[in-house]
Structure formats: C-alpha cells, structure tokens
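Entry:
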Amino acid sequence: MGDGDTKNRRLRTIAAFLMVLCILTPTAAARAQSLAGITPTPTTFWSQVDTYVGLTPSIDFMFLASGTPGRDGTHPEIVLGPNIDIALWNFFTHLKTNNPERSKYLTLRVGYRYVKNLYGQSTTQNTGILELTPRVPLPWGFQLADRNRIDLRGLPDRFTWRYRNRIALLRSFQIHQFAFTPYAQTEVFYNCDLGEWTQYNYTFGVISRITPKVEVDTWYRRQTTITAPVTSANIVGVKLLLFLHRVGN
C-alpha cells in the first residue's frame, strides 16, 4: 500500500470520527443525565443560510437568514440581517474554504440583526453588530481566529449592549476532490447590565466544500448560562453558505 493510500485512509478516519462526534455528543450527554436522575438538557436544532456577494476584492456583502425553535424548543424565532465585511492584508492560508476572508489578517464587519419571536405575544429585537476578527496562520496548516463582537441590542423595553469573544482553531483536509475543514471554538459573553460574564459556549463543527460556490457547515454546540439560575442547552445546527460572483466578474 502506497503512502498516498495510507494518507487518504487516515483522512477518512479523521473525517468519520469528527462527524460521529458531532452527532453523538448531545445524545451521550442526555443519556448520562438520564441515568443519573438529572433532568436532561434540552437539545434544539438551528438552521441558517449565509449569502456572500463580492463587491470588491476586499469588501463583501453578506445576508444572513436563520430560524431556531429556541433553547427549550418552545420559543421559535427568525433572524434576518445584512452585513458589510471589510477584509485587509492577505496571507497564504492552507484552509480549503470558499470564504476569501479566511486568507486575510483582519476583518471588520458592520451589520444588523432583525430578530422576531414567534411565540406568545410577538416581539421584535433590533441589534447592531460590530465585529473585529484578526486571524493568524499557524504551523502544520492550522489557523487561529479571534472574533471580538459588540451587540448593540434594541430590546422592546430598553437599549443595552454585550461583548462577545470567540476563539476558533481550524484545519483543512482533502480527499480527492472533497475538502473539509474541522474546527473547534469557544465563546464568552459579557453583559453590560449586570457588569459580569454571563454565558459561555463551545462548538465543534465541520465545513464541507461542495462546489466553489457552496459550502455546508454542520456543528454541535454546548451553551451554558453561568448566572443564576444556571442552565445549559445542546444545539445541533446546519448552515448553508453561498458565494456569488463579484460585481463585474
């Protein structure tokens, strides 16, 4: 057996392991809680579509649309939002994804989120988004990204803001024409009303490149609120990413 066949077999094993991990982790956690006599942590499903339109080599327009049944499955909501992404300073990346921003040292995003609750008395939330994400290429094909985000939240009864910091580690693999990028990330939330850190989550996922214009991101997230009452939730999600031609191309 040649070195190429051995490498491909190892890559297939890694891909299978990551996919099984994303699927089985929520089930295993719920099973352990049941055996211990603990109320199972709710598991919900999120779906999302992100559409990128290249305006210039450094500026993209992105529109987000997502739907979720809520943390306990009974509080559905939809989220819509336009974004302008400005990316600076190219570097060579080993990541095999369609998003050109992953080959930039710095990305600035200015966006808006319209959130509409679909349960009980229908309410809406308007949120401004400011993000700054530096990226660093690492040895062995890894990449580290540190997203710093401020949510300017217009709630029904007041205006408030929160800070979110998310660190992600990614690496791509390729088997013949199929490229996939496993990643792990963790995020913490700071609430200005309370003046303290209130929530954290960790996520494991895989970005699969289907065509030069289409990717699918599947992931599992464990989300925990650390202020009283302490609660947790398991979230399984799928995101469709569409990349359109730049204007004039």
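Residues 3-35 form the longest helix (33 residues).
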